[in-house]
Design a protein that fits this description.
- The protein contains 3 helices and 2 strands, in the order H-H-E-E-H.
- The protein is an alpha+beta fold and 71 residues long.
- A two-stranded antiparallel sheet has the order 1-2.
- The longest helix has 17 residues.
- The radius of gyration is 16 Å and the shape is elongated.
């Protein structure tokens, strides 16, 4: 059984099944280790061109960075 992660629709039963799967657990471990290595300490954290932005209040800066409007 696979969940359609490209949509916002995923039943709680299916979600519960998927989070028990080894591939999902392995991926979570991998991305967590990568985040720690990059200095992530909370969420949301975004990187744009190597610059780290942390917190909801920084999302406007993420948008500006994506548009090339930051120095």
């Amino acid at each position: 059984v696979d969940c359609d992660w490209s949509s916002d629709v995923c039943s709680s039963d299916l979600f519960g099944q998927r989070i028990q799967d080894t591939d999902v657990k392995d991926r979570l471990k991998m991305v967590t280790e990568e985040a720690v290595a990059r200095g992530v300490f909370g969420a949301p954290t975004c990187f744009v061109d190597g610059k780290m932005f942390f917190g909801n209040d920084r999302l406007p800066f993420v948008e500006m960075a994506l548009k090339g409007e930051l120095p």
